[in-house]
Amino acid sequence: MLKDLICDEFQNTVSESLVYHRSILDLLSKLQQANANISRDVIKAVTNCGCLQINAQKQAIPKDTPLGDLKRYFQTHLSGKACEHCQESIENQIGQHLFYIAAICNLLDINLYDVFIKKQKQMEILGMFNLS
Ligand SMILES: [Zn+2]
Asked: What residues have their beta carbon closer than 5 A to ion ligand 1?
C-alpha cells in the first residue's frame, strides 16, 4: 500500500531533526508538556486576549433523546473566534504536539499514516458508537 507522502515526510523530518530528547522518557514528558501548552494557549485566548469566551454549564440533554439526536444538544461552551495571534499560537502548540507524537511513533516503529487509517476505519465502522 502506498503510504501518504506528507505524513511519511513529516515523520521522517521529525526523525532527522530530533537531536535532544531521544529517550522515550523525554518524549513522553515533552508530549505531556506540549499537550499542556495547547490548553494554556486556549486559556490565554480567553483570559488574556479575550477573543474566545467560555460559558459552561451542565449539558442539558432531554430525557430519552435518541442517540442520533444527541449531537444537537451538546454545547461546546465556547464562543468567539480566536484572533490571528491566538490562532497562530494554538496552531504552533498543536504542531509541537504532533512533532512529539511522530517522534514517539518513530521510536516505537509505528507508521503515523497507518494510525490515521486505522482510526478512520474504526470511526467509520463504529460511527456514533465510537463514544468520543
Ligand atoms: Zn486572541
From this structure: 45, 49, 51, 83, 86
Distance 92 CA to ligand 1 centre (A): 14
CB within 8 A of 10, min separation 6: which ones? 98, 102, 112
Span from the CA of 76 to the centroid of ligand 1 (angstroms): 18
The cell for 53 is 469566551
What DSSP element (H or E) covers 78?
strand 78-80
Burial pattern 11-36, b for ≥16 Cβ within 10 A else e, equals: beebeeebeeeeeeeebeebbeebbe
- Find the 51 Cα to ligand 1 centroid distance in Å: 4
User: Ligand 1 centre and the CA of 85: distance in Å?
Assistant: 6
- Give residue-wise pLDDT tens across range 78-130: 999 999 999 999 999 999 999 999 999 999 999 999 999 999 999 888 876 66
How remote is the CA of residue 7 from the centroid of ligand 1, in Å? 30
Q: Go through the domains of the chain in sequence order and give each one's CATH number.
A: 5-51+83-125 (1.10.287.1080)
